[in-house]
Amino acid sequence: MTAGPGGALLVVGDVVTDVVARHHGPLAAGTDTAAVIRTLPGGAGANVACWAAHTGCADVRLLGRVGGESAAWHERELVAAGVRPRLVVDPATATGTVICLVDAGAAAERTFLTDSGASLRLDPADWSDALLDGVARLHLSGYLLFTEPSRELARTALAAARARGVPVSLDPASAGFLVRLGVDRFLAFAEELDVLLPSRDEACLLTGLPDPADAAVKLSRLVPLVVVKAGADGALVVRSGGMPTRVPAVPASPRDTTGAGDAFTGAFLAALLAGTAPEEAAARGCRAGAEAVERVGGRPPRPGSGG
């Protein structure tokens, strides 16, 4: 593989099938709730890769693991989004599936039911240091840390990147899974990172601090660049324990907030690869997040699709 002008972005992470059910109001327990249901390609790692390509990164690569029943479909979707996938086909387990229950009210809040399937069965045997050839940045999905095989793969990829001087970023992915993993175990892994992109809730959980700005400053003493994604409140950018810079959100009319954080991360990394300062990169991330919440599902529109 050869890199684009700014070098390639390699994403290692989850590729899953999203079943998005948009309903109005509370779920009716024990009976039917009317909903509009769509089956879409998803996964935090795959979404980040697609948004990075959508927002201008010329060379985006993705390492993920899927089941044989949907491997061809996921590969076609990624290629159509401008991503160069390397999908390992799991011989024994189906592609991960996430059921996204989206309340179609004003906030478009969502609840996930997650079957990780093949996505978290990535292991060190799926890695080759040659994957870093031409790569200028490596991004790891935080979901990799939540099972031992994929956690070991993440350690392997991180060590290989450090040996080559390739900066590494990570999105913690899920406050609920972080609780199960343990904050101390996560922070021990994070010590080797260059960029950390938590949500507001994840930043507060990782530090025990109630204020996201204070949490961002504390985390930036561990990881040199911390960007806290705060949804409708925009983002906070902090470098090495300095003062946080607040980046405003872009107004949007939410339909589905699934993948908004992934859109931010993809756009942010694409901007960093282009040489943009972190504060401006975060502003581009906010614009991508606003675009994402006005769509159903976690992916950007396909090139040339018009929406």
Chart the SSEs and their pairings:
Layout: E1 8-12, E2 16-23, E3 35-42, H1 44-54, E4 60-67, H2 71-80, E5 83-90, E6 96-103, E7 110-115, E8 135-141, H3 148-164, E9 168-171, H4 175-181, H5 183-190, E10 195-196, H6 200-207, H7 212-219, E11 225-229, E12 235-239, E13 245-247, H8 260-273, H9 278-293
Parallel strand pairs: 1-4, 1-8, 2-6, 4-5, 8-9, 9-10, 10-11
Antiparallel strand pairs: 2-3, 6-7, 11-12, 12-13
What is the mean pLDDT?
93
End-to-end gap: 30 Å
Low-pLDDT segments, ≥5 res: 1-5
Tell me how many strands there are. Answer: 13
Count every helix, treating DSSP H or I runs of 4 or more residues as helices: 9
> Structural class of the helices, strands and pairings?
alpha/beta
Largest β-sheet summary: 9 strands, mixed
Radius of gyration, whole Å: 18 Å
Shape: globular
Q: Please give the share of residues in helix.
A: 25-40%
Summarize the structure.
With 307 residues, the protein is an alpha/beta fold. Helix content is 32%, strand content 25%. The strands form 2 sheets. A 9-stranded mixed sheet has the order 5-4-1-8-9-10-11-12-13, with helices on both faces. It has a 4-stranded mixed sheet with strand order 3-2-6-7.
